[in-house]
Structure formats: C-alpha cells, structure tokens
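Hi, here's the filled form for the chain we discussed.

Project: internal
Contact: R.S.
Residues: 105
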Amino acid sequence: MDLEQLSDDVEHVSEIYATKFGIERDTTWFLLKLQEEVGELTQAFLMMTGQARIKGQTPAEAAESFRREVADVFCQTLLLARHHGIDLARAVDEKWLIWAEPPSA
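And the returned structure, exactly as it came back:
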C-alpha cells in the first residue's frame, strides 16, 4: 500500500463528502472529526467485546463494525496529517521505527 496514494484517495473522498453535506473542512473540523471517529471506534469495541449493548448485531456484525471504525480512524488520521502538511511516513519512521532493531545480516 502506497501511503501517499492512499492519502490522495482519502482526500478525494473527503472532499466529495464535504461538498455533499455542506461541510467546511477547517483545522478544527479535522481534529474534531477524528475525535468523533475515535468515539465510534470505542463504542464498536465495547459492543464487540460484550461490554455494551450490541443493538441487535450478531457477533460477526459487531466485529465488522469494529473493523470499519478502525478504518475510519486511520483515514481521518491521514486527513489530519495531510491538512497540517505532515509527512506521516517520515513521522512514523522518526517516532516509532527508530526503535526497531536493524535486520540481522
């Protein structure tokens, strides 16, 4: 998966969504939308793990809902990074992957 291409694709879909629903995607929106999606992910997790009402969902449907909410959080994170000009791949390299042990020869 090419992160830059994915970011472009997600941006395109987000622009369509914003136009369709008359949403101004300003700096505040990008952060608050991510927070909204994290809340939905939390709810899906609680439902999937039996810690909240499943609202008529089967266990498989609850697991699918959780999977989809993880995708929403990931995509909103891509959008937030893009909006602020963050090279997410580089940031991950510098923050996370610096701790990885080099492959043994």
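Let me know if anything looks off before we file it.
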